[in-house]
Amino acid sequence: MAPSVSELTAQVQEVNLKSSTKGQSEPLYPLYYPHFDLNEKFPPTQLFDHVDPGTRADRAKPHILTPETKVRNLSTYLGTEVSGVQISQLSKEGLDELALYAAERKVLLFRNQDFKDIGPEKQIEIARHFGPIQRHPTSGNVKGYPEFHVVYRDTEHDRFRDHFGNSRSNLIDWHSDISYEKQTPGTTFFFILEQPEIGGDTLFASQVEAYNRLSPEFKKRLEGLRALHSAVRQADESAKKGGPVRREPVETEHPLVRQHPVTGEKALYVNQGFTRRIVGFKNEESEYLLKFLYDHIAKNADIHIRATYEPGTVVVWDNRVTVHSATGDFSNVQRRHAVRLTPQAEVPIPA
Ligand SMILES: [Fe+2]
């Protein structure tokens, strides 16, 4: 007989408590240890009005680009390293500028931030400026704070082993976070708590430049198409492992090319993680087109960057116009611990 929910809860809680892993030190930030409660349930997400903070921003970004700020672009199309400014100290106007800056540069790497030490309430308050924060239906969250999505790997908990097993020779998994939601994320925060000495970078690709590189005729064919994005596989994988499914998995159709509400840029909006098929196409047609688009995104290496981590790094990116992938190039003998806050934005605008 299958174990009851209370038995499963007990097992999961035991896993939660087993944080002191074999041969490994305690996590530096135990508050953010991944928490799974099988009894935690969320109602379906309700639609809300979204006005992107970036639309209110001063284009010159005087609160971020001060005389003390140093910036270094990582590539032509996306990615800027920023130092000399604290996200935690930004005013509402500064946060509006952050939304605009993230939309323009796609990915911002803020160095030497105090963000990880300002406490969960303040972290949530800052992220909420950009939209209601998604409460993840399956991932580890923080006890009492379901807004946090915890990324954690150590000797006992190995996401790559759990997710891919030994069946794949390639662990790169390009995706845009939670694209199955009706209102998908915009400005997104990821802060590192503990990291391996080397490896564990995040790859990002510009979906704007991926779109720009297509021919006018091909762009015409893509515009107007819609694709189905699904949370079902994620929910099934969690259930199979005895993990939580806090909300009924949703499936949503989104435009295949979307337009950014602040910059007006057009971007491809498909990703291997959650896009399942092109609406109205027969199976083979859909598979053929999606395979081309995924290859196009993955093989254009000059529209990619690697986000590297240092203690105090906070990555702020725009999930509407990028895809990203974790990298598994580090030994799980070293702990990697990070947290994402994922504000949801507008219903995708068709190009
Ligand atoms: Fe992600």
* Small molecules bound: fe (ii) ion
Look at the structure and give the CATH class: Alpha Beta
Specify the CATH architecture.
Answer: 4-Layer Sandwich
Element string (H = helix, E = strand): HEEHEHEHEEHHEHEEEEHEEEEE
**Main sheet overview:** 7 strands, mixed
What's the shape? globular
Q: How many domains make up the 3D coordinates?
A: 1
CATH topology title: Double-stranded beta-helix
Helix count?
Answer: 8
User: Over all CA atoms, what is the radius of gyration?
Assistant: 20 Å
CATH superfamily: Clavaminate synthase-like
Q: Order the strands across the largest sheet as they lie in space.
A: 1-2-3-13-5-15-4
Low-confidence stretches: 1-22
The level of helicity is 10-25%
Residue share in β-strands: 15-25%
Q: End-to-end distance, in Å?
A: 51 Å
Structural class: alpha+beta
The overall pLDDT, averaged over residues, is 92
Kindly state the number of beta strands.
16
Task: Describe the overall structure.
This protein is an alpha+beta fold and 351 residues long. It has a single domain, classed as Clavaminate synthase-like (Double-stranded beta-helix). 23% of the residues lie in helices and 21% in strands. It contains eight helices and 16 strands. The strands form four sheets. It has a seven-stranded mixed β-sheet with strand order 1-2-3-13-5-15-4. A hairpin with a 6-residue loop joins strand 9 and strand 10. The longest helix is centred in the last third of the chain and has 17 residues. The N terminus is likely disordered. Fe (ii) ion binds next to loops.
